[in-house]
Design a protein that fits this description.
This protein is an all-alpha fold. Helix content is 76%, strand content 0%. The protein has helices at residues 2-23, 27-54, 57-73, 81-107, 127-148. It is globular. It starts with a helix and ends with a helix.
Length: 152
């Protein structure tokens, strides 16, 4: 579930810095955009926990996934600093809800939050975000090159 939300976040971290000039953004704006979700998460963690006291976990998780997807889709709209900031804040809120829900599910599980013993992980712990981080700038560059190529 969270992989879909992380895709837009990872994409933004890798593509925004290299595409900033084309989007009309300076380095300060890029830093602000990339940091807003962290601030939003700090400010919304308590709110997310309170939401879990009032609403069903399934409902909140679906809402958070939808909010994360919508905020990621906003990156494809014509760039404007306020739009980017709002989308990043929304993504931060969505991530707070997902993260708090995961923690609450672990603590409230029948096993009392005690899971199976850890086993060796894969050589690359999170291959999808790594692939997104490595391939997103290449894809954006290819699309930009295709747009610049004269059509016959």
């Amino acid at each position: 579930m969270t992989a879909a939300s992380l895709l837009g976040d990872t994409f933004l971290y890798t593509v925004l810095p290299v595409s900033a000039a084309r989007l009309g953004l300076d380095a300060i704006a890029v830093g602000l955009i990339l940091s807003v979700n962290r601030w939003a998460r700090l400010l919304t963690n308590v709110l997310a926990a309170r939401l879990y006291e009032r609403f069903a976990a399934g409902t909140l998780i679906v809402a958070a996934i939808c909010l994360g997807a919508l905020s990621s889709a906003a990156y494809a709209l014509p760039s404007a600093l306020l739009l980017f900031l709002a989308a990043r804040a929304a993504w931060g809120m969505a991530w707070s809800v997902l993260r708090i829900g995961t923690l609450l599910a672990a603590v409230e599980s029948p096993s009392g939050g005690v899971g199976p013993p850890p086993r060796p992980g894969p050589p690359v712990p999170r291959p999808r975000p790594l692939a997104a981080a490595l391939l997103a700038p290449l894809r954006v560059a290819a699309l930009a090159a295709a747009r610049r190529r004269p059509r016959a």
